[in-house]
Amino acid sequence: MSAGTILKRTVFFLGLPLALLVSWWFASERSTDYYQPPLSKIIDVFPETWFGDALTEHILPSLARLGLGFALALVVGVALGVFIGSNRWLRALLEPVLEFLRAIPPPVLVPILILVAGIDSPMKVLVIFSGGVWPILLNTVEGVRGTDEVLADTCRSYRIGGTLRLRHFVLRAASPQIMTGARQALSICIILMVISEMSTSTSGLGYKIIEFQRGFQIPEMWSGVLVLGLLGVALSLLFRLVEYWVLGWYRGVRAAERGRL
Q1: How many CB atoms are located within 10 Å of the residue 50 CB?
Q2: In 3-state terms, what secondary structure has residue 199?
Q3: What is the CA radius of gyration of the chain?
Q4: Is the pLDDT reported for residue 1 higher than 60?
Q5: How far is CA 169 from CA 3, 21, 155, 177, 210, in A?
Q6: pLDDT band, residue 150 (cuts 50/70/90)
Q7: Predicted confidence (pLDDT) per residue in 197-242, tens digit
Q8: Which of 56, 74, 201, 222 sits CB 3.0–4.6 Å from 197 for a disulfide?
């Protein structure tokens, strides 16, 4: 990919958020509402609020919980998805149960998880995991189920099995679906990270935003919302880079297919 193409895609990706920030700046500049301060005031308190102790006491712990919960959801979701998707009878048996469990909103599990895991970081990681695992699991099942039967027969004919078949055929064929599920799960995990920290917590972005709200530190509260938005954009960009690397072979196949048409 050329430098020009990368620059064009970056501008396109960041264009709307920047336009929204500019619109927010001008729309709120004359605001006298205590609960809706001007963006300029929010930006003024931003460095003092988040560049210092808050970085190590709240932002980094939140990112650590998010990373651990998302990684756990990815490993468990892919492993169970491959196992279930590879067995037609098991898939038919478990599908109603999986749909039932997926329909349960993860925030309602917080009281139960507090009883099981306490109020420390393990509970918050479990909340993040409980919401992020389902998109990955179900997309992996669909990806494994949709593998090419001709290629599957070819593997059997050449007696390609075990880890070699799993790595080079099953996971590769299902990787577009897996990445789609992981992208959905990342957004859910960010939301659940904040929710898990808003109750029974002494650190994290969610805790700090609620603390500002209860102390009527409104500009600081809005700056926390801005931090979450910036983290969401940064993590989305990072995920796009990982996705671009993982699915390089898939883009090549699609380009070859378009060339033959």
Answers
A1: 20
A2: coil
A3: 22
A4: no
A5: 32, 45, 8, 14, 47
A6: confident
A7: 887 778 899 999 999 999 999 999 999 999 998 899 899 889 988 9
A8: 201
Spatial CA neighbour of 228 closest among 188, 192, 185, 194: 194
Q: Which amino acid is at 37?
A: P
* 224 burial type by CB count under 10 A (0-12 exposed, 13-18 middle, 19+ buried): buried
Q: Looking up tokens 């600081």, which residue turns up?
A: 220
Query: CA 63 → CA 7, 30, 56, 111, 197, distances in Å?
Result: 28, 35, 10, 22, 12
Amino acid at residue number 256: A
Per-residue pLDDT reduced to its tens digit, 67-125: 999 999 999 999 999 999 888 888 888 888 888 888 888 778 777 877 777 777 788 89
Cβ-contact 107, 195 below 8 angstroms: yes
- Tokens for 159, please give them: 């007696």
Task: From 114, 75, 119, 107, select the one nearest 195 (Cα to Cα).
Answer: 107
